[in-house]
C-alpha cells in the first residue's frame, strides 16, 4: 500500500487532477482486454506531458514502486495488467498530434493518440498510416508501439516497427532518452527496434515519430467463398506463388462468418471458408492482378467471387472482418482470443489439426486470421457457467500455441506475451535465450519496476546469473522474494 507521503509525491508529480485513488475509480484499470486477470492498482496517474511522466517514474524509482503504462486497455494478453502494489501510468491525456510533416512524410504524436486518428488527420492530403489493428478506432499509438501491433494490411506494409521511426522514452530510472531517428539507417544499435514490442517493460514512450505513406492510386477488394477452409488456404499460397503481394489476405471460417453476420450484417455468403483479398497500387496493375486473383480463386473451387464496386461495399466487407472478435460474443457466452503464427505453407495442416483438437475437447473454435502472414486467431468458444469448461478452453488454446511452435511458428503474431503467455514463451525459447533477453531488460530496468512479472515464464532478478535457476543471494537471505 502506498504511504500518504508517496501519494503526496505522486500528486506533486502529476497534479491533483492527474491522480486517481479510491477503490471504485481504480476498478476501471484493474485489467485490459484479457479480463480473466485482474489486479487493483494502488493509484492511477494521468500525466499531461513528458515532464510529468518523468516526475511520476522518478517517484516510482525512488521507492521501488512498480508501474505499468496504459493506452486504451484493448490489449489481449494482460500487458496493461497492474502489478500488485503498483501504479498505472495512463497516457490517455497525452493525445495530441504534435507535428505533421508532409515533406518528410512523418507525423509526431503523443502516445495516447488513437491509431485511426493519424490517418484521419492526413487523409485529406492523400496520405495514410499503414498499421491498422482491428481495434484501430480505440487503441493508441503508445500501445501499438509497445505491442508492435499488426493488422490486415501489415502483410504488404509491415508491422508498427517498420513505421515507428523515432521515440522519446522515459526509462525506468526517470531519464528522458531518444531512440531511433527520423533519418534512414542511423548508425549504432537499433534501440528503437528493441523498444518496439517490449510490452511496457523498458519504459514509457512519450512521443513517437511515425512514417506516413502516400495513398495508392487504386484499391480493389474481393471476397471469395469456398466449400472448405483448406481451399481458401490453398488459394492464399497460390496467390503468393504467383508473385502477387496483396495489401491484405484474410480468411474467416463458417463460425466466424456466422458471428460477423449476426453482429454487422456484412452480407457474407454462407460458406466454410471466406477469403478477402485486397490489392492496391497503380490502377492498371491492380486491375490486371485482380483478374489473376479471381482466376486462382475459381481454380480452387470458389463458387462466388464478389468485387466491391464502391467505397461503401468495400467498407462493409472490412466491417465484418474487423468486428469478428467482438462478434463471437453473439454465438458464445465466453471465448478466448488466441494469436499464434505458423509458416503459410502449414496453413491447411494446422487448421485441420485445430479442428481435430477442438472436436476431441468437445469445444468449438472459430478461425479468423491474417492468412497472408500466417497469423492465426483461433477463438476458443466456451461457457463459463459450465463447471470445468473454462479450464478446458484454456488448455485447448495453450495446446494450439504449442502446435504453432511445433510447426515452426510462434506463440504470438501481434497481441504480445503479457501475462497470458508467459508459460508459452518458455515452450518457445530455451533457458539461455530467455536469460539473454533478460540482460536487455536489465540494461534498461535494473530495479525491475517497469511492468514486472510479464513476458518471462518466471520473475527474474537482474543480478541473477544466466543458466538453470538458483536462488539469488537476496532471496536466500530473505530480503527479496519471487512471486
Ligand atoms: C477487438 C480487438 C481487435 C484487435 N485487433 C488487433 C489487431 O488486428 N492487431 C493487433 O496487433 N492487435 C489487436 N488487438 C489488440 C490491441 O488492440 C493491441 O495490442 C493494441 O496495440 C493495444 O493498444 P492499447 O492502446 O489498447 O494498449 P494497452 O492495452 O493499454 O497496453 C498494451 C501494452 O502497451 C503498454 N503501453 C501502453 N502505452 C505505452 C507507452 N506509451 N509506452 C510504453 N508502453 C505502453 C502497456 O503497458 C501494455 O503492456 C485487438 C484488440 C481487440 C480488443
CATH class of the largest domain: Alpha Beta
The average pLDDT value, as a whole number, equals 94
Uncertain runs with pLDDT below 50, 5 residues or more? none
Number of domains: 5
Dominant shape? globular
Radius of gyration: 23 Å
**Strand fraction:** 15-25%
- Work out the helicity level: 25-40%
Distance between the termini: 17 Å
The CATH architecture assignment of the largest domain turns out to be 2-Layer Sandwich
By helix and strand content, what is the structural category? alpha+beta
Which properties best describe this structure?
alpha+beta; 483 residues; 18 helices; 8-stranded antiparallel sheet; Uridine Diphospho-n-acetylenolpyruvylglucosamine Reductase, domain 2; 5-stranded antiparallel sheet; 19 strands; binds flavin-adenine dinucleotide; single chain
